[in-house]
Design a protein that fits this description.
This protein has about 200 residues and is of the alpha+beta class. It has a single domain, classed as Endonuclease, Chain A. The protein is built from 6 helices and 8 strands, in the order αββαβαβαβββαβα. The protein has an 8-stranded mixed beta sheet with strand order 1-2-8-7-6-3-4-5, sandwiched between helices. α2 runs parallel beside α3. The longest helix is centred in the N-terminal third of the chain and has 18 residues. The chain starts with a helix and ends in a 14-residue tail after the last helix. About 35% of the residues are buried. The C terminus is likely disordered.
């Protein structure tokens, strides 16, 4: 028979363990961390800043053409610093076949900032929307979820992403980004800013 006091202690510990499963930024078994809302950006920045070899980004909307204080603009700086440390940085962005679309305009403006910092940027094929949002650091640390790289998504919106430490998944996502870049002509086809010939 279990004493009442020890049963209460067990129930309290069990309730705390269950509650921890639903907190943002809490690691799970297997190297998976749930990143809710604004818990995403600090985890991502730590991974980019700790990158040794490679950062691969596949992003639907990377809107860094706002003020320098905007969080997406800060991600440009972190990617540029990684590049400056000798890390290979590749960003693949959505473009569009229709001229003047807001996503394409923002992505092309951000591409200019990234390229000015020496970061390689490619665009997907304009004939098919790439709505994915993912990052792979050093071919094993993966971020996948709903977060676009905008001030709204990084600061205000309710968003859900996960961080997964898995080399197989990392390799698959990095290969997928390369395929998207190849379909878009590795930055040649689809790289013309919207509204330009």
């Amino acid at each position: 028979m279990v004493a009442r006091g020890s049963m209460n202690g067990l129930l309290v510990r069990l309730a705390l363990a269950i509650a921890l499963l639903f907190l943002p930024g809490v690691a799970r078994a297997g190297g998976t961390t749930l990143l809710l809302d604004d818990a995403f950006e600090p985890a991502l920045v730590a991974a980019i800043d700790g990158a040794r070899d490679e950062v691969v980004v596949g992003m639907y909307l990377f809107k860094a053409d706002g003020p320098p204080t905007h969080r997406a603009r800060g991600l440009v700086r972190h990617l540029a610093r990684a590049k400056g440390r000798g890390v290979r940085v590749q960003v693949v962005l959505e473009t569009a076949d229709g001229r003047g679309q807001e996503v394409a305009v923002s992505n092309h403006n951000t591409a200019k900032l990234l390229r000015d910092a020496g970061v390689a940027v490619a665009f997907d094929s304009p004939g098919r929307r790439s709505h994915g949002k993912f990052v792979v650091v050093d071919r094993h640390l993966c971020f996948v979820g709903s977060h676009n790289w905008t001030e709204s998504a990084l600061r205000f919106n309710h968003e859900v992403s996960v961080q997964i430490d898995d080399a197989t998944l990392g390799g698959e996502l990095a290969a997928y980004a390369q395929r998207l870049a190849a379909e878009g002509g590795a930055g040649r086809r689809g790289a013309t800013p919207p509204g330009e010939p």
